[in-house]
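Need the bound structure for 1,3-dihydroxyacetonephosphate, inputs here:
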Amino acid sequence: MLVSAKEMLNKAKAGKYAVGQFNINNLEWTKAILLTAQEQNSPVILGVSEGAGKYMCGFKTVADMVKAMIDELGITVPVALHLDHGSYEGAKKCIEAGFSSIMFDGSHYPIEENIAKTRELVGVCEELGLSIEAEVGAIGGEEDGVIGGGEVADPGECKMIADLGVTMLAAGIGNIHGKYPANWAGLRFDTLDAIQQLTGTMPLVLHGGTGIPADMIKKAISLGVSKINVNTECQLAFAAATREYIEAGKDLEGKGFDPRKLLAPGVEAIKATVKEKMELFGSVNKA
Ligand code: 13P
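Answer from helper R.:
Posting the output first, comments after.
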């Protein structure tokens, strides 16, 4: 069932668990995540970056594929199709293409411009019943060639953006996309706590879920994080399983070169990663 992320995240915030956003790259990724969500009876958010949207031949192709897959696979758990780190133009395109949720990432704009653009998109989403995520304080690391410095958000600015009526709010708290460096200082729980105190029941979003230790994830959830984004970890699991298959020479045995066989271990690895995250985030049986 394709739905906005609003109800699932409000329920998660109230119930002190988090819903995973897993980024998709192709048909195999999408199928693996949808099937795992159904098996675990968990709500799920499919994240699509602008780069991944382009790779998959445009947002309309993605939206149509996801809707058809939900139908064909008989997926009954709540699924949100969400634009990840969208530009203003990208957000408009996804709304048109049939996404049920968007993120407008105006964190690189001065706060006044972030507020003005977020406000306009909140209006559009409200009218159409879509959920909208905004961001304050750029998340560090590299995503689609955009490199952020790992800022720590200003809680007062978070409150200003939350008050615009966004559905969920991403705030930089020392988290970064991709693998964490060995000397990473960890999440800034003091900032997260201050943000939650000011934003109350607003579901908070933790980006850069790959490689954050389980105890930090649990503490973040206890301080109001209700959506956690995971991308790189599924990519690493897929690549490792595919490498193992090929290095074992299995593509050279019989019809092992058939893409349906060659990509199968990678799909299973994504499924195992998503299951593990759903268990850690506490979203199993919360559909
Ligand atoms: P990771 O790639 O570090 O898991 O981050 C994902 C993310 O935050 C997508 O917005």
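Comments: The two ends are 11 Å apart (CA to CA). The chain is about 50% helix and 15% strand.
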